[in-house]
Amino acid sequence: MAQPRKTALDVALRALRSRDRTAAELGARLEQRGVGEAERQQALETLERIGYVDDERFARTRANHLAARGSGDALIRDDLERRGLAAEVVELALGALEPERERAAQIAVRRGRNLKTARYLASRGFGEEALDAVVAAED
């Protein structure tokens, strides 16, 4: 017996079972599954209307998670943009975080205020201002 064809909404809901996703991520998944543009848009609008898809919520949650794990603004911005979020949504999420300089200072307290920590912070996407604060505190 043939299985019934899955609707765009079924495919999207299945993708949302494991984790929150952006509208762009869901749209790409639906497109990969051969769902037409009109059906994709309708499914995404339905999911947004009922609150299952909310790019602003996703951006805030993801930014907070990455910041808590020691990521700087550049790394967080890159992650959010790669997920297809609009620039204004990304900036709102970054603006809601504790300032990057303060996050860098907290890491420096734990790891020590030295050049090694400054290199670590740079590799985690912290900007020059945050790095300058760590290095200046060492001097």
Any descriptors?
Arc Repressor Mutant, subunit A; single chain; 139 residues; mainly alpha
Describe the structure.
The protein is an all-alpha fold and 139 residues long. Helix 4 packs antiparallel against helix 5 and helix 8 runs antiparallel to helix 9. It folds into 3 domains: 47 residues, Arc Repressor Mutant, subunit A (Orthogonal Bundle); 44 residues, Arc Repressor Mutant, subunit A, CATH 1.10.10.10; 39 residues, no CATH class.
CATH architecture verdict of the largest domain: Orthogonal Bundle
How far apart lie the N and C ends? 75 Å
What sort of overall outline do the alpha carbons produce when their principal axes are compared? elongated
Return Rg in Å: 20 Å
Would you state the CATH class of the largest domain?
Mainly Alpha
Taking the sheet with the most strands, its summary is:
none
CATH topology of the largest domain: Arc Repressor Mutant, subunit A
What percent of residues adopt helix (DSSP H or I)? over 70%
> Could you say how many structural domains there are in total?
3
Summarize the structure in short.
The protein is mainly α and 139 residues long. It has helices at residues 8-18, 23-32, 37-49, 55-68, 73-82, 87-95, 100-111, 115-123, 128-138. The chain has 3 domains: 7-53, Arc Repressor Mutant, subunit A; 54-97, Arc Repressor Mutant, subunit A (Orthogonal Bundle); 100-138, no CATH class.
